[in-house]
Amino acid sequence: MPYDEEIPPGQDWTEPPKELDDLARAVIGAAIEVHKELGAGLPEEAYEGALAVELTARGIKFERQKRVEIMYKGARVARGRIDLLVGEKLIVEIKAVEVLLPLHRLQTASYMRVIGQPLGLLINFNVPLLKQGVSRVISTF
């Protein structure tokens, strides 16, 4: 369940493990550096590539365009592609759009569910200040 949805009565949000939260902070720091250097207005591919360079420089392990299998009742029904999978557990979805749509958040949450991880980052680089474009997406299962 994405964190911006209403919490059902009697259910608390569970914060992600500290290790995952620390990893998210490191990725956000790298994304801020990319945004300072490139600014807004470029295609998503440019930001993804630049973030890959920055993560490598910082010694943070990641996979780019990570393919994941989408299962339904035990059968593979499709494959998806995560922009960046950091540390084998943090999904990073990169956008360069005028406005983030609810669908972008749902996509991030769906990939989190597919790989069974409680935290993802949705980063929109098409903003004046990157802090305006960073969204943590938290799920409970």
Report on this model:
Helix 1 crosses helix 2. The protein is built from three helices and five strands. It is α+β, with helices and mostly antiparallel strands and about 140 residues long. The chain has one domain: Trna Endonuclease, Chain: A, domain 1 (3-Layer(aba) Sandwich), CATH 3.40.1350. The longest helix is centred in the first third of the chain and has 21 residues. The chain has a five-stranded mixed beta sheet, sandwiched between helices.
Biggest pleated-sheet summary? 5 strands, mixed
How is the CATH topology named?
Answer: Trna Endonuclease, Chain: A, domain 1
Which sequence of strands runs across the widest sheet?
1-2-3-4-5
Average pLDDT level: 90
Whole-number count of domains = 1
Number of strands: 5
Give the topology string: H per helix, E per strand: HHEEEHEE
SS field, number of helical segments: 3
Radius of gyration: 15 Å
CATH class category: Alpha Beta
Q: Termini separation (Å)?
A: 7 Å
General form:
globular
Low-confidence stretches: 1-12
CATH arch. level architecture: 3-Layer(aba) Sandwich
Q: Percent helix among the residues?
A: 25-40%
Helix/strand/pairing class, anyone?
Answer: alpha+beta
Strand content: 25-35%
Name some characteristics of this structure:
141 residues, Trna Endonuclease, Chain: A, domain 1, 5-stranded mixed beta sheet, 5 strands, globular
Outline of this structure?
With 141 residues, this protein is of the alpha+beta class. It has helices at residues 18-38, 44-57, 102-115; strands at 62-72, 75-86, 90-95, 119-124, 134-138.
